[in-house]
Amino acid sequence: MFFRKTCGLLLCVALLCSLPASAQQMSGTVKFNLLSVEGLVVGKTVRVDEAFASRHGLAVPAPFSFLVPTEDDVVVLMDQAPGRGSAFVKLNFITKDRKLIENIQFVPMTLKLATTQERLNAVGRLLAGTAFQRAVANHAKPTRDLVRAVRIGDYNGVEVIGSYEDAVEGKMYLRIVGILNPNSRDGIVAIANVVASRLDLPAPNDFPRTRGGVLLKNFRFLDE
Asked: Disulfide check for 148: which of 8, 34, 36, 71 has CB 3.0–4.6 Å away?
């Protein structure tokens, strides 16, 4: 089992299907290190805002931004607004020979306004239930290991951590994070998949040092 099973905080969300496990149907054994979260992170800022909404002809009820970390030996493929009813943005971090290391996508979430604890409980129920089941659908050996409250940058949220077996990539680590917008019922859910054979994750607290984790560390809702 990836992580010790615990009972934790639970919650609610209008969530779409998760990003496919593989950027390309290839396997390999190259191992990558976790990133340092200390000091300056080099990367590119992506804004999903009013201009993004206008450009792609969709609604963005809770504009946000994030920083995509860049490295010489990792390629980032970004798919913006891939289609109605799907993610705002999907990112694949891959090797130069196009083998998946990890990926992350952002989908909308709507919660009624209530106390922070009530909203966290609502998000937890949905992420631990429906969202997790959709993320592991059609995969073998799904395991939900941890559900807990977290801080994502300046925001309250809940994360669900688990794993599953992908037919091509083998064992995959899964992280689903619901981020509460303090000023709105509209928030964000991030869904991340990590290829275990290419990136070691010794413990739950190492997820913030993945590429998707560093990206989330620099997540911000935009006041517009």
From this structure: 8
